[in-house]
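Document type: protein sequence-to-structure record

Subject area: structural biology

Format: plain text, a pair of labelled lines:
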Amino acid sequence: MQPGFELRLTTMMKALSETVLPAVDAHNKAAVEQMHIVIGSLALLREQIDFAHWFEVEEARDMAGLIMELAALAALPSTASATDTARLSLALSDRHDIRLSTLRQANVDLRAAISLLIEEAAAAGDNSVFDRTQALVLAHGKRQIGRERAFVAATNFDVFPDTLRTIEETLQQPAAP
């Protein structure tokens, strides 16, 4: 039987906290601070690991949906390419047998396609298209920011912690506004 990710991360955190950190020169403030950052980062990874694939899938589905909505607004020069990117990403998000890094790259590609569509909508000169584009992007951004805030909530750096939802709640949120 192989030890799970959570056990291995917990073991590393314990070793760093109980053995390595006490051995670091207390007067070396930078080294002590870096040890705390590493331990905190491992704790954050331990919390995120169960949701990492789900997070990337929801990001892909939400961004692909945004692309399809943007494509329906107007025929922009990159609409066909963007919708192809969206369809590919949706197909990947339905698979269980791909690497997380593949999903992440698909999401990078989706972001690039969205960015290009936004630029084209702004340059089109049609204020109604731009206004509708802006409304769609803002609605998407609200959902995306909610997921991202929840995903890093354990850092305790959120300015409005009373408005945070759990990672699971944000991932179960419907993609449409």
In short: The two ends are 44 Å apart (CA to CA). The CA atoms of residues 7 and 74 lie 51 Å apart. Helices lie at 5-23, 29-48, 52-73, 79-93, 100-123, 127-151, 167-172.
